[in-house]
Amino acid sequence: MKLSGVTAGGLFLPANFAANALAAEAGVVFPLHKAIGEASTVCPYCSCGCGLLIATGPDGHIVNSEGDPDAINNRGALDPKSISVRSMSQSPRRLSKPLYRAPGASEFEEKEWAWVIEEVAKRIKQTRDTTFEKTNADGVTVNRTQAVAFLGGAANNDEECYIAVKLARALGLVNIEHQARI
Ligand code: SF4
């Protein structure tokens, strides 16, 4: 009987064990991680939220995308837009940092995420605090602001929407919508 491996003391070793042992002897080092990583994610383009399987290369960019057969809404099917996530990921025109245009300025400038998040939080709080209404014109308690709105996007999953709406309600927002409904 011909086996594609090595037997040692009753233990069957796969064929690549012998190859690995020879490579180790020769001082060859194999990387611990696969060069191509695969993960499941959601197509970012519309509210259908189709499941995607993406493979990423060593630089973190997408090198392949396929429909996820385990996703209940698309069962492995995809349209051409979602197949193009690979081009989007590798495009030299893709923004890699937030751009900010200050009031009155004509040019955008690159900013770090930490600065942007703090600035957005500061402006939301400032607007909310200065426009907060405890009661309406009839004296009914409303505890709201109508100066800030929240709009969800297609790439938000259930859990993200749940947390976002909790935050919006806690701030007193009443204008809350999702892209899928408008
Ligand atoms: S694959 Fe097409 S239908 Fe599905 S989420 Fe992406 S853009 Fe929408």
Describe the structure.
- Strand 1 (5-8) and strand 2 form a beta hairpin.
- Helix content is 30%, strand content 28%.
- The radius of gyration is 26 Å and the shape is elongated.
- It has 182 residues and is α+β, with helices and mostly antiparallel strands.
- The protein contains five helices and ten strands; from the N terminus they run ββαβββααββαββαβ.
- The strands form four sheets. Strands 3-4-5 form a three-stranded antiparallel sheet. A three-stranded mixed sheet has the order 8-9-10.
- It has helices at residues 15-25, 80-83, 85-90, 113-131, 158-171; strands at 5-8, 11-14, 37-42, 51-56, 62-67, 99-100, 109-110, 133-135, 141-152, 173-178.
- It folds into three domains: 37-90, 2-Layer Sandwich (Phosphorylase Kinase, domain 1); 95-129, no CATH class; 132-182, no CATH class.
